[in-house]
Write a structure and sequence with these properties.
134 residues; single chain
Length: 134
């Protein structure tokens, strides 16, 4: 018969098993509330504007604290994102024109490529600012 090593004995007895993250969860109880579609949309919108998940927002409203793991999401600047989307469409159009020109045998216009690149870099900055990561 084979002798069991210390490691295999521990593994067989479960002594080396790490606890699952679900066994560490403190929130084990749930609460249910029924909402109309309008109420649900309003709830999700308020949670988003507060920068919290819906659950964290409900805890904050009901208990005064959103909980230790609730992360505040940066608020979105929708107007700035709308402008960024329009600018992104313009940059995409410029890139398509450059690609078409090159694919039909044209020579690269380095200043046009540099301008489009600069527009793209500036646009990335606008998007980062709009999502609160600037």
């Amino acid at each position: 018969m084979e002798e069991k090593t210390e490691k295999t004995e521990k593994a067989a007895s479960g002594a080396e098993k790490k606890p699952r993250s679900s066994s560490k969860r403190q929130r084990t109880k749930g609460a249910m509330v029924r909402l109309t579609p309008t109420e649900s949309a309003a709830l999700h919108d308020r949670a988003r504007r507060a920068g919290l998940s819906t659950g964290a927002y409900l805890r904050a409203c009901a208990l005064g604290d959103s909980g230790p793991r609730a992360k505040r999401a940066p608020p979105l600047n929708r107007e700035l994102l709308g402008d960024a989307l329009a600018s992104l469409n313009r940059v995409g159009n410029n890139l398509n024109q450059i690609a078409k020109h090159l694919n039909t045998g044209g020579q690269p216009n380095h200043s046009q490529i540099a301008d489009t690149r600069a527009d793209l870099v500036a646009l990335i900055e606008v998007i980062l600012e709009a999502i609160g990561r600037h």
